[in-house]
Amino acid sequence: MSDKPIVLEPVYEKPTLCIVGDPGAGKTRLASLWPDPYFLDTEGGAGSAVPKERRVGFDVSGDMVAQVKKKVQELAALPYHDRRIFLNDMPIGGVVIDTLDAAQQVHKYMSLLKGGTYSFREPRQMWGKLLDDFILLVFETKKIPVPVIWVAHAKIEEPIYDIDGGIKRNGWRGIAVQGSIEEQIVRWFDYCLHIIIEEDFARKCLTQPTIYKGYRILSAKDRHDTFKTIGKRSFTISVDEATGFPVTQALQVIYDRHIY
Predict the structure, then answer these.
(1) What does the pLDDT look like over 64-89, one tens digit per residue?
(2) Residue 253 to residues 46, 103, 177, 204: CA-CA distances in angstroms?
């Protein structure tokens, strides 16, 4: 077996990431480890982890997606230099949308269903409209010169066990979105980091589709095989007990590999 260190070839494109996990898994704090992040906070959850100058919140209303889209357009128009855009004199190395599913739910209930389910002849129309609206937002984020990191909660279906405690049917863990978005969402990303809280409260991050403890992990992805340097399919995330922030090189590894 060779003892030579693994060398990653550069990837000449801007990455798009998604960080997925349960409430309290440390998604926002992990995203905050990206160099010079700026948060678009759609559910007010970034306040404890992000300085106020590095986040902007949005009204919970039917036009939340339009508000986010407008801010994305403003960020895309900022001056760019050396993997940073500049908001006044503040460098921004990545834009974090926290969270994807909160924005989807607000848009669904306060915009699409504002007139009730009778606004649509059949459910497929609503799910299609929801996808169309979010795809337009995704297209706008692609215009930002720096990476975009989406944060999302996990959607979980529990496994079914037989009488002896064996797995009768695997459960699954995906991204907590609905309708047609659910079928297509993982395609949007180069990386999906799926954080699981273990029984001893340790964090494990899965980076490839797999079956883990009875769950099919649908929202884990490493398009460029970047994490083979720290864990081919998974790696652990320790937490600094003093600060509560994760201790990991995972985001730095992505940042260092991509040239854009």
Answers:
(1) 999 999 999 999 999 999 999 999 99
(2) 23, 29, 28, 17
Token match 């337009």: residue? 136
Q: Which of 172, 174, 149, 33 is nearest to 99 (CA)?
A: 149
Q: Which tens digit of pLDDT belongs to each residue from 134-185?
A: 999 999 999 999 999 999 999 999 999 998 888 899 999 999 998 889 989 9
Count of CB atoms situated within 10 Å of the CB of 200: 5
Q: Is the pTM of this model over 0.85?
A: yes
Q: Which of 106, 94, 101, 98 is nearest to 47 (CA)?
A: 98
Q: Which fold has domain 16-257?
A: Rossmann fold (3.40.50)
Q: What is the largest CA-CA distance in the chain?
A: 65
φ/ψ (deg, to 5) at 179 = 65, -145
| Cα(26)–Cα(23) distance, integer angstroms | 8
DSSP notation for the chain:
---PPP-PPPB-S--EEEEEE-TTSSHHHHHTTSSSEEEEESSS-STTTS-GGGEEE--SSTTHHHHHHHHHHHHHTS-EETTEEEETTEEESEEEEE-HHHHHHHHIIIIITTT-GGGSSSHHHHHHHHHHHHHHHHHHHTTSSS-EEEEEEEEEE--EE-TTS-EEE-EEEEES--HHHHHHGGGG-SEEEEEEE-TTS-EEEE-S-EEETTEEE-S-EETT-GGGGT-SSEEEEEE-TTT--EE-SHHHHHHHHB--
For residue 5, give both structure tokens.
């260190």
Domain boundaries, the chain: 16-257
